[in-house]
Design brief:
The complex is a heterotrimer of chains A (252), B (609) and C (263). With 252 residues, chain A is of the alpha+beta class. Chain A has helices at 31-41, 104-111, 131-140, 148-152, 154-157, 167-178, 188-192, 205-209, 216-232, 235-247, and strands at residues 2-11, 16-25, 61-64, 67-70, 85-88, 95-97, 100-101. Chain A has two domains: 2-99, Roll (Ubiquitin-like (UB roll)); 104-237, Fumarate Reductase Iron-sulfur Protein, Chain B, domain 2 (Orthogonal Bundle). Chain A contains ten helices and seven strands. In chain A, a hairpin with a 4-residue loop joins β1 and β2 (16-25). Chain A starts with a strand and ends in a 5-residue tail after the last helix. In chain A, 60% of the residues are buried. With 609 residues, chain B is an alpha+beta fold. In chain B, the strands form five sheets. In chain B, strands 1, 2, 3, 7, 8, 9, 10 and 17 form an eight-stranded mixed β-sheet that branches. Chain B has a four-stranded antiparallel β-sheet with strand order 16-11-20-21, with helices on one face. In chain B, strands 12-15-14-13 form a four-stranded antiparallel β-sheet, with helices on one face. In chain B, β20 and β21 form a beta hairpin. Among the domains of chain B are: 251-383, Flavocytochrome C3, Chain A, domain 1, CATH 3.90.700.10; 467-570, Fumarate reductase/succinate dehydrogenase flavoprotein-like, C-terminal domain (Methane Monooxygenase Hydroxylase, Chain G, domain 1, Up-down Bundle), CATH 1.20.58. Chain C starts with 25 loop residues before the first helix and ends in a 10-residue tail after the last helix. The chains are: A alpha+beta (252), B alpha+beta (609), C mainly alpha (263). Chains in contact: A-B, A-C. The interface between A and C is large, with 71 and 57 residues. The structure holds flavin-adenine dinucleotide, iron/sulfur cluster (2 copies) and FE2/S2 (inorganic) cluster (2 copies).
Chain lengths: 252, 609, 263
């Protein structure tokens, strides 16, 4: 057991401070354990969210030593020794108290995404899909909604474009619908306009922080941008569309 | 977006008030499915949960959802599923529930696919099913080891687009009644600490279990048995409370992750259990009931893994009660691993690539939390408190509790799983009975001519009680009392029980209840876990007492209940449920007969397949 | 609008403001420096084709990739600025445009030069109006326009690479031949690991098993996806090698280095 110094944010969105605590740390402890220990011994009213303690629910998001992480999956012995360990709330959302932020905006955004609309099933009422058809989408559906990617994305974090940009979490949600082998809705116009995909400048911070290791930028956002390009910016695709219209007017 | 259907009604009590036809408490699989169904019936529906939406326990479920789709092995059918469920439950199940469950689960799974869920696939493009303990055939529809996530997300998105009103981070502390029928619920917003009143015609409880009564558990802070306690105090019956499932494989090291679940999928995909001598000890623990369908040699078990359909299942896939007890015994007799568990080995059974593809969550979990590469080394595991078989007594068809207007589904409902739940039967239970509860509640609400009235005096009193922890200047924090309670339950009411210890537990729980009257909280009400736990403590004490009394009552060993003073399973006890009921302020225990099963179903149970 | 008001202690804006304690500055520094060197060299190289009659971009069978395919102008019009009288003008726009709109390039460029953001969870300059691709930077959507010529260029560069083995006295291998055959290979790896290319070969499909051609495209898409994972690596190595190829040909043409004949 050794004593380590933690600096934990205490306060709300109005004012607060990084308060210093000394915590006894055992082998194998994660940051969330330290926070729990604090609650049980020194700060019973310290607010933080958690549920699974195994990186599956996405509740315990925070910024540890300045980097967005899940508290339950960050081993204390893997953090650099010597310096105090800082634990701050996510900064792209209003703070409710201590480590808890108001993430309700995310839930509002989700409502604006047109839902899954499948093509008609086979006569037996089900669909056939091959594993290779769904591998891509399954990657996106691993998302545990920790919102760390939203937190780190500079478009939200620094530029506060919450009203014009849905953020990486919901771009992968759209991708999971757009690439779903059964879905029939075309969301490209929404992507370009309302969802603000153009705000993403591929800086890949979302991919860096994602605890589920979803390759958000390369596998979801860029392919979505490419789909938008297909429809709006590709000279060859445009030409082919025009030709098709001329030669097959009935197909419209 | 749909129009908001709830009404904000001004009221005398000073907090917010919402009025809705149906209120669903709990937003796990059961709650979401119930809310969807009630909404599809055209009613206004509110969905309440303690955490954020999508963070309920269901999200953590790993292995899969059991449904006799028969895509992987065409010998499977609802009949076999029904048989397996009852055998697993040691014939104490509410057979009507088990029957509906086995028959309807396949449709519920297919329905999820129509709502966008993507399960892993077979070669011919159907839903892939995996093996699990106690299931005769590969039966679990799954997505790697994150099935619960897929299910909850699918339901969540469906619910959101149907225009269900979601009240997140809101804890319900009391059910309100108008005469004998339900009229609403009182709770508080966790973010502000303000009280909030919900008026409703019908309420569905879907609050999950109570694993937090134990220290070593796979359950989160939410699992304090609120639904059980709410129902109990509202006058509903609880049954089977003596049956608490200890999952055989929880992590044991490092200490801080002790209890975190290692999915049964590891064994379903070929993982084996070994003791410190390197023996595959499960061969020594095959009960008579399963002798006919379990391999008795390693050679046969290996053939099974290789896909030989004539080979019988390996003993690692016996039911959870059996495996958990076997592990406890191995450790007790000195053949345990360094940290008092046993070894679970998948590394020598499957290729690293297979493991990473089928069990990615387990791989990460061990790599990051324990520094162990499960594709190379075995895991150390030991039993962890996991699931509550006991719960609110309900009608199989409608999920109605014994209080008019109250319904229950999911883990907080009792009867479906009998004395022991089979892995994978919970997720399908949520879907089948979540839907039935939503339907039942909607029909009940529609029949009600007017909104029941809420007794404001009762509301104010309950509101008053909520604030009490702040008024005590001296007292203990909830953390301390909960910790002592967990310690007590683990020592006296653990996997193996006996009269002497249970009697002691009865005394101890009374002492803890006294201490709880003096629990205090500091700071203010806004997002104050110290205060929140103080309120949750009340539920924990209620369910703990119920577990103890029920366990003391049942004088036999059956499924998850092991009594060393009554080691045998008794036929007579197989005909009754232990029922917990509130009379005045007293908790009473009664024995009541199970309903008689028709002969043709009985015949199914005896079949050897 | 949703605005996260933060107390002073947690302020995120302000250039370089961060609570991070690791060496986040390292990456933008080395990439920024490396790229700057390339830009300076390639501009200088392109604008210095060498004196008439003794071009620095050509030596024996070798042709510098900056100038391929070679468009020679007999007589530049008088009004044409002297400094821009270089055949590189006709070709360089394509690879330049391709790279300037490359998705990886955007990450690097925004982080390193526009500091938008300089690193993950690192603050940006106080007030500047960020529009993403919505304003001026909409040109980044033109990546496809450059992809098509870039693919053509790969073929041309391979042609040059092979040609570099055929000396005046017949087949032979010089160090330059190797330099110039490795170069199109790297360019090809870079080009075919492009995200737009990945999209066109199969990324745009929703169902891979639905038809014979989709199944075939799935195979290709799988291979391209593998390459794509290292797109950043291909970007840098091919960039460096192209610069070096020009440098090599130039040195040999100028007579500073002698080309070693291996065969
Ligand atoms: C780690 C793990 C793995 C599992 N794996 C599997 C598996 O592979 N297969 C399987 O079939 N089962 C599995 N289970 C079991 C299964 O996940 C649960 O039994 C099931 O999810 C319970 O669902 P539920 O809808 O009843 O409740 P939950 O999903 O737990 O939801 C409970 C809800 O009630 C809310 N709530 C509780 N109290 C209150 C209150 N007072 N006021 C307001 N809201 C309240 C909570 O906030 C939550 O939203 C697993 C369980 C765990 C813990
Ligand atoms: S890559 Fe795009 S979405 Fe991801 S953090 Fe950067 S700007 Fe945001
Ligand atoms: S994409 Fe990754 S980082 Fe973003 S919310 Fe989902 S899991 Fe979290
Ligand atoms: S507590 Fe669930 S992700 Fe950390
Ligand atoms: S070249 Fe880099 S993405 Fe196209």
């Amino acid at each position: 057991m050794e004593k380590l110094i933690f600096k934990v944010y205490r306060g709300d969105s109005g004012k607060g401070e990084l308060k210093e605590y000394q915590i006894e740390v055992d082998e194998g402890m994660v940051v969330l354990d330290a926070i729990h220990k604090l609650q049980a011994t020194q700060a019973p009213d310290l607010a933080c969210r958690w549920n699974c303690k195994a990186g599956r629910c996405g509740s315990c998001s925070a910024e540890i030593n300045g980097f967005p992480k899940l508290m339950c999956m960050t081993r204390i012995d893997e953090l650099p020794k010597g310096n105090p360990i800082t634990v701050e709330p996510m900064k792209a959302f209003p703070i409710i108290k201590d480590l808890v932020t108001d993430v309700s905006w995310n839930y509002e955004v989700n409502k604006t995404i047109p839902p899954f609309t499948p093509k008609p099933p086979e006569p037996d009422g089900t669909w056939r899909m091959q594993q290779k058809d769904i591998d891509r989408v399954q990657e996106f559906r691993k998302c545990i909604e920790c919102f760390l990617c939203q937190d780190v994305c500079h478009v939200l974090r620094n530029h506060n474009k919450h009203s014009q940009f849905i953020g990486p979490r919901f771009l992968i949600r759209v991708a999971s619908l757009e690439m779903h082998p059964l879905d029939t809705v075309d969301r490209r116009e929404l992507l370009k306009d309302q969802f603000g995909i153009g705000f993403c400048n591929i800086t890949k911070c979302c991919t860096e922080v994602c605890p589920e290791r979803i390759t958000i930028t390369d596998n979801a956002i860029i392919p979505l941008k490419e789909r938008v390009v297909d429809r709006y910016y590709d000279p060859l695709a445009w030409l082919i569309r025009q030709l098709k219209r001329v030669f097959k007017p009935s197909a419209k | 977006m749909k129009e908001k259907v709830s009404d904000r009604v001004g009221s005398a009590f000073g907090g917010e008030t919402y009025e809705q036809d149906v209120i669903v408490i709990g937003a796990g699989g059961a709650g979401l499915r119930a809310a969807i169904e009630a909404r599809l019936q055209g009613l206004s529906v509110g969905l309440i949960c303690k955490s954020l939406l999508g963070k309920a326990h269901t999200v953590m479920a790993e292995g899969g959802a059991a449904a006799a789709l028969a895509y992987v092995d065409n010998r499977d059918s609802w009949k076999v599923h029904f048989r397996d469920t009852l055998r697993g439950g040691k014939f104490l199940n509410n057979y009507k529930m088990a029957l509906l469950h086995a028959q309807e689960a396949p449709d519920r799974i297919k329905e999820l696919e129509a709502w966008g869920a993507l399960f892993d696939r077979t070669e011919d493009g159907r839903i892939l099913q995996r093996n699990f303990g106690g299931h005769r055939f590969p039966r679990l529809a799954h997505v790697g080891d994150r099935t619960g996530l897929e299910i909850i997300r699918t339901l969540q998105d469906k619910a959101v687009h149907l225009g269900i009103d979601v009240y997140m981070e809101c804890t319900i502390t009391k059910l309100l009644k108008d005469g004998d029928k339900i009229s609403g619920a009182l709770g508080y917003w966790r973010t502000t600490g303000e009280s909030v009143l919900f008026k409703a015609k019908a309420i569905v409880l879907a609050t999950g279990g109570f694993g937090k009564a134990y220290r070593v558990t796979s359950n989160s802070w939410e699992y304090t048995g609120d639904g059980h306690a709410l129902a109990y105090h509202a006058g509903a019956d609880l049954i089977d409370m003596e049956f608490v499932q200890f999952h055989p494989t929880g992590m044991v090291w490092p200490l801080s992750v002790k209890g975190i679940l290692v999915t049964e999928g590891v064994r379903g995909d070929g993982g084996i259990l070994k003791n410190s001598k390197g023996e595959r000890f499960m061969f020594r623990y095959i009960p008579d009931l399963y002798k006919a369908e379990t391999s008795d040699t390693e050679e046969e078990a290996n053939r099974w893994l290789a896909g030989d359909k004539s080979a019988r299942r390996p003993p690692e896939l016996l039911t959870r009660d059996v495996v958990a007890k076997a592990i406890v015994k191995e450790v007790k007799e000195g053949r345990g691993s360094p940290h008092s568990g046993v070894f679970l080995d998948i590394a020598s059974r499957r290729s690293a690539e297979d493991i990473k593809r089928k069990l990615p969550g387990m791989y990460q979990q061990f790599k990051e939390l324990a520094g162990i590469d499960i594709t190379k080394e075995p895991m150390e595991v030991a039993p962890t408190c996991h699931y509550a078989m006991g719960g609110v007594r309900v009608d199989a068809e409608t999920a109605a509790a014994t209080v008019p207007g109250l319904f229950a589904a999911g883990e907080c409902a009792g009867g479906m799983h009998g004395a022991n739940r089979l892995g994978g039967n919970s997720l399908s239970d949520l879907l089948v009975f979540g839907r039935r509860a939503g339907l039942g509640a909607a029909e009940y609400a529609k029949k009600l001519s007017s909104q029941p009235t809420v007794d404001m005096g009762e509301v104010q009193q309950a509101q008053q009680q909520m604030s009490e922890p702040f008024e005590r200047s001296r007292g203990e924090t909830a953390y301390k009392i909960i910790s002592d309670l967990q310690e007590m339950m683990e020592t006296y009411v653990g996997i193996v029980r006996e009269e002497k210890e249970l009697s002691l537990a009865v005394e101890k729980i009374q002492q803890l209840k006294k201490r709880a009257q003096n629990v205090c909280a500091t700071g203010d009400k806004a997002y104050n876990p110290g205060w929140n736990y103080a309120l949750d403590l009340t539920s924990l004490l209620t369910v703990s007492e119920a577990i103890i009394l029920a366990a003391k009552e049942r004088k036999e060993s059956r499924g998850a209940l092991t009594r060393i003073d009554y080691p045998n399973t008794e036929e007579d006890w197989g005909k009754v449920n232990v029922v917990i009921r509130k009379k005045g302020t007293e908790m009473t225990v009664a024995k009541e007969p199970l309903s008689e099963m028709p002969e043709e179903l009985k015949a199914l149970l005896q079949e050897t397949i | 609008m949703h605005k996260a008001t933060l107390p002073k202690e947690l302020e995120t804006t302000g250039l370089g403001k961060t609570a991070r304690k690791d060496k986040w500055l390292f990456e933008p520094l080395w990439t920024g420096l490396g790229f700057a060197i390339f830009v300076v060299y390639s501009t200088w190289g392109a604008l210095n084709p060498g004196p008439a009659g003794h071009p620095y971009y050509e030596w024996g069978p070798y042709l510098s990739p900056f100038f391929s395919p070679l468009f020679l102008v007999k007589a530049w019009p008088d009004w044409w600025p002297k400094i821009l009288r270089t055949p590189a003008l006709f070709v360089l726009w394509a690879p330049l445009g391709f790279r300037a709109t490359c998705y990886y390039f955007r990450k690097f460029f925004y982080r390193t030069y526009l500091l938008d953001p300089p690193g993950c969870a690192v603050g940006e300059a106080r007030s500047h109006n960020y529009k993403g691709e919505k304003g001026f930077f909409i040109y980044q959507n033109l990546h496809r326009w450059f992809l098509y010529p870039a693919v053509a260029l790969v073929i041309i560069l391979f042609y040059d690479g092979v040609k570099a083995f055929f000396f005046a006295d017949g087949f032979g291998i010089g160090v330059g031949s190797l330099v110039l055959i490795i170069e199109p290979i790297l360019i090809a790896l870079f080009t075919f690991s492009c995200n737009s290319f990945r999209h066109l070969v199969g990324g745009n499909l929703d169902c891979y098993s639905c038809s014979f051609s989709n199944r075939a495209r799935y195979q290709v898409w799988g291979k391209v996806s593998l390459l794509n994972r290292n797109h950043m690596f291909w970007f840098w190595i091919s960039l460096g090698w192209v610069g070096f190829s020009d440098f090599y040909v130039r040195m040999v043409a100028m007579g500073i280095w002698t080309d070693w004949r291996i065969l």
